[in-house]
Amino acid sequence: MGNTKAILVDIKRCVGCQACEQACQEIHHFPKEHPAHLSDVAFTFVEQKNEKFVRRMCLHCEEPACASACLVGALKKSALGPVTYDNKKCMGCRYCMIACPQGVPKYQWSKLAPYVQKCDMCFARISTGGKPACVEACPVEASVFGTREALLNEAWSRIRNDSGYVPRIYGSEEFGGTSVLYLTDVPFEDLGFVKPAIGNQPLPTLSAAALSESPMVVLVGGSMLSALYWITQRRKLVALAEAEEEKHDSGKGKQ
Amino acid sequence: MSGNVPKLTFWRTVTAIIFVVGIYAAYLRFFRGWQVTTNLTDAQPWGLWVGFGTLCGVGLSAGGFAIAAAVYLLGMERYRPVLKASVLLSFLGYSTVCIGMLYELGLPWRIWHPMVYWNPHSVLFDVSLCVMCYTSVLTLEFSPSLIEKLPFPRLREFYLHWHHRLTIALVMAGTLLSSMHQSYLGALFLIAKGKVYPLWYSPYLTTMFYLSAIPAGIAMLIIALYLCVRSLNAKIEFAILEDFSRVMALLLGVYGVFRALDLVRNGALPYLFVRRAETLYFWAEIILLVVLPLALLSQSKVRNNPQFLYWTCAIVVMGFMANRLNVSITAVDAMTGANYVPKWPEFALTIAVLTAGVCAFRWAIIYLDIVPKRELLPKIKWVTAPAEA
């Protein structure tokens, strides 16, 4: 996992210029003006929260709930790091939207053939050695791009060298780890960061626990049903034989 | 019917209106889009069509596998007279669910994708495979009722001969498939922990869904059988329905106990009396699904009266619907603040597909050999066993 790509967002450095936002809109040919939340035409936006600027985007979980939920495997955690979406497989069930704790996947409700829309960390660019458009646009290096391991080291060294930082990297372990990491100088709780429902465990473990029982159900259930059927048949046969015998006996009695 | 044009009765008019409005709603869905047709949003991507059409549709069709298992695997031959009717009811129930998928999915022409693109880690994948297989099983289980009406004796006998030999395998497969996907429908919401209001989130959602689906399926079956006798000239011993009601009461009791223990275990007790709309929805569900039916069924006056029993079952079905809608809509809305209220075309399409199911059921009961028929003596509808039997 050390070589997967990641983005480090440093909230302390962010000046709220929204260059990342504009770069993202441009590269996807999305409208320049858009409401200030994630949508099917906005994969990142800068939210002002408690006098801080927090860049929201897909966290690209290490074990993404959306990919685990997707029944046709259209959403996938790529070896490179980003969680990607294959619109040729998607059938529009929207279970990913239920599963994602951040509400990241968005739907093209206005289209007749709607697809799910989400950030793919500019997969095409980074797989040829480039940077995500949003990172490239950042003038103050509030967003940096690199391998997850290198960025974690970088983040820890920033925390060590500046006591102003909260000594915690959001995404280092949350949801089982994410490929977008956050640093801040005010508590994460005050910035609207989602508190993971099961701490640092990946959410897919919840459904895996239920699904792991299915081979057992089939085996045990199947043999129990077969046994029941055998007993039922056996009782029928015995009842039939007894009835025959009785008939035979009563026949004898008459003679 | 005298062979002329059917008379314009009240219910025929209502049915016609439902279909016309339904077809218009379908036009809106496919040619004008989601925003004209639904109030679904990114915060509430699953609305009435999933919560009612799929979750309730599958759950209320659980009667078929329960009765088939009782007759074939447990040897309860006394239920055989209603076996075909219960298979028919489930078959039509699953058919409405499958038709519902055609407007519920964003890209319905890809409905076959789960057969080719597999993700075994997905609960929904398991559900969709189980539902596909079980719908096929139900089609096979139901098929003799149609085949035996074919005018080709050789084909008929060949089919029925082989069908007879395969029945047990079908029933066993059906029981396993049903048990799995009925509970997995609950497991769908496990991964969304944190987005489901605590009154409804539980690691045992699987068990809860399974335990509630069977009594609700039986309630639905009693309703259908009652209507067959009341309006379609069927001859069904009331003792069978009374038996069913006893099993249903027992299962509802078991469900009630498990649900209560589960709420304690999940630490949801503090939420029971919070001043929130969700609390109201929760209690409405519990009262309709557990408390009221059990109170009513404890009275022999209710159990022994077809009409009272019918209405009691209607309450169970309403309670069941409340539960599924609460899990899928109320509980999610509470956490995401979606504030979802379905738009009228969502209702119109759902009702139209259900009505088509009811019409198909009625047609099958009248024209196929599904249930024994009465001689036309409209005065005595219920065959009751002698008191001392």
Tell me what you see in this structure.
The complex is a heterodimer of chains A (255) and B (389). Chain A is α+β, with helices and mostly antiparallel strands and 255 residues long. Chain A has two domains: 5-209, Alpha-Beta Plaits, CATH 3.30.70.20; 213-254. Chain A has helices spanning 19-27, 65-69, 95-99, 123-126, 133-137, 148-161, 204-211, 214-254, and strands at residues 5-10, 45-49, 52-56, 75-77, 83-85, 106-107, 116-117, 143-147, 180-183. Chain A has a three-stranded mixed sheet. Chain A is elongated and about 110 Å long. Chain A starts with a strand and ends with a helix. Chain B has helices at residues 10-32, 34-37, 48-59, 63-73, 83-104, 113-116, 123-147, 153-187, 205-231, 238-265, 277-297, 300-303, 306-336, 344-367. Chain B is globular. The model of chain B has no long low-confidence stretch (mean pLDDT 93). Chains A and B meet through α2, α3, β6, α7 and α8 of A and α4, α7 and α8 of B.
Notable traits:
heterodimer; A: 255 residues; alpha+beta; Alpha-Beta Plaits; 2 domains; 3-stranded mixed β-sheet; two-stranded antiparallel ribbon; B: 389 residues; mainly alpha; Formate dehydrogenase/DMSO reductase fold; 14 helices; 0% strand; globular
Share in β-strands of chain B: under 5%
Element-level helix/strand string of chain A: EHEEHEEHEEHHEHEHH
Main beta sheet of chain B: strand number and arrangement? none
N→C terminal distance of chain A: 90 Å
Corresponding CATH superfamily of chain B? Formate dehydrogenase/DMSO reductase domain
Question: For this structure, what is the CATH class of the largest domain in chain A?
Answer: Alpha Beta
Global morphology of chain B: globular
Q: Predict the CATH topology of the largest domain in chain A.
A: Alpha-Beta Plaits
Summarize it.
With 255 residues, chain A is of the alpha+beta class.
Strand and helix map with partners:
The complex is a heterodimer of chains A (255) and B (389).
Chain A: E1 5-10, H1 19-27, E2 45-49, E3 52-56, H2 65-69, E4 75-77, E5 83-85, H3 95-99, E6 106-107, E7 116-117, H4 123-126, H5 133-137, E8 143-147, H6 148-161, E9 180-183, H7 204-211, H8 214-254
Parallel strand pairs in A: 1-9
Antiparallel strand pairs in A: 1-8, 2-3, 4-5, 6-7
Chain B: H1 10-32, H2 34-37, H3 48-59, H4 63-73, H5 83-104, H6 113-116, H7 123-147, H8 153-187, H9 205-231, H10 238-265, H11 277-297, H12 300-303, H13 306-336, H14 344-367
Helix pairs in contact in B: 1-14, 3-5, 3-13, 4-5, 4-8, 5-7, 5-14, 7-8, 8-9, 9-10, 9-13, 10-11, 11-13
